[in-house]
Amino acid sequence: MVALEMLEREAMHTSGRSSAPVVLVVDDVPENLTVLGELLQPTYEVIAALTGERALELADRPTPPDLILLDVMLPHLDGFAVLARLRANPRTRDIPVIFVTALGDASSEERGISQGAVDYITKPIRPVVVMARVRAQIEARRARAVLSGYNAFLEAEVKRRMVENDRTQLVTIRALAHLAETRDPETGNHILRTQAYVHILARRLSAHPRFAPTLDARFIELLTRSAPLHDIGKVGIPDHILLKPGKLTPDEWVVMKTHAAVGAEAIERAERDIDQPVAFLQVAKQVCRWHHERWDGGGYPDGLRGDDIPLPARIMTLADVFDALINRRVYKAPMPAAEARAIIVAESGRQFDPDVVEAFVQDFDEFVAAASRYADRS
Fold first, then answer.
1. 296 FRET partner, CA 20 to 30 A, in 4, 44, 101, 243?
2. Which DSSP string do the residues of 36-55 spell out, in sequence order?
């Protein structure tokens, strides 16, 4: 009678779940189902299957059992085959399985454990042993579920905090860049445009044999983020020099050129404050200090030449010059993009790395589109 009730309860198991853990008992002998059912039912919800095929169907339902007690000697599909199919199915592979069998030899037990069974009970069953082992596996499964949920929560929390930290970094970068802009208001959307140019150049150069080892996706992201900081050193330049509408005197030009080193030194001090290397700051420091160096060695502040100029600075140099040429400044009128392109091409091998110029020419239309997208609005 108990075996029949357990079989009828299968239909209920598809529509809802009681608060009690569910144990699926699989045995081709109804009397054995009755014995196990009477033993387990006061504590657990018990459902039953007379064949391996039926057991697989019950295990694969939307609400799976918490534990399976599986006989080895089943017709057609024996217990070992049933266990193999349970473990091969992503939806059932984590259900703990205890073999309950008359096969008491060590080889059968070893085979079952090696295939993934969590325990092995031999017949005739001992009620105290069965209840203790079932309880242990149910509690272990619930503990795993709690731990899995906690791990999922931790992963979500880590992801949330990483996104938050990422946004904080972006906002901080923009705030510092805009601080420099307040000293030089005519630059307008300069930081947005140059950031776009840098990204375009880095993406193109990442396919070049010279630069591919350096310009992976992570480095391109760091470089793009650091671009807005290239002129933060201008906060240290006096207004009468920074905003002078005419040509600077030699002495004023000496002061003006210090902005590159001032910005880099500010970042270096920040590095010392946190007492550990940060990849983003390393790139930002290179961009700040050396974006006015020239390929031919005639730039400042250190007169670096060729490949001695860090790649981030070489990319920033071209982006910065192009934007300065096509936009209005207190000391000059804007020029057409095509004219600016001609000037940059003419400076290939002198002011600019020739391969960076080639990338610029290939993606010139994208430069023009970015300039239009972030154009200053009067």
1. 243
2. HHHHHTTTSEEEEESSHHHH
Report the DSSP beta bridge partners of residue 329.
332
Residue ranges of the chain that CATH labels 1.10.3210.10: 184-373
pLDDT in tens, 270-311: 778 777 777 888 899 999 999 999 999 999 999 999 999 999
| In CATH, 2-153 is 3.40.50.2300 | yes
Q: Which of 225, 219, 227 is nearest to 169 (CA)?
A: 225
Q: Is 14 helix (H, G, I), strand (E, B) or coil?
A: helix
CA dist., res. 183 & res. 154, Å (int):
44
Instruction: Say which DSSP state 229 is in.
Output: G
Q: What residue type is assigned to position 180 of the chain?
A: A
Of the candidates 311, 341, 282, the one whose C-alpha atom is nearest the C-alpha of residue 202 is 311
SS3 22: strand
Contact between 68 and 44 under an 8 Å Cβ cutoff? The reply is no
pLDDT digits (tens, 9 = 90+) for 169-192: 666 666 666 666 666 655 568 889
CA distances from 109 to 98, 103, 105, 136, 238 (A): 11, 8, 7, 19, 85
H/E stretch holding 363 reads none
The answer to whether the beta carbons of residues 246 and 331 sit under 8 Å apart is yes
Look at the domain 184-373 and name its fold. Hypothetical protein af1432 (1.10.3210)
Written as six digits, the tokens of 205 are 């150069």
What is the CA 123 to chain-centroid distance, rounded?
A: 52
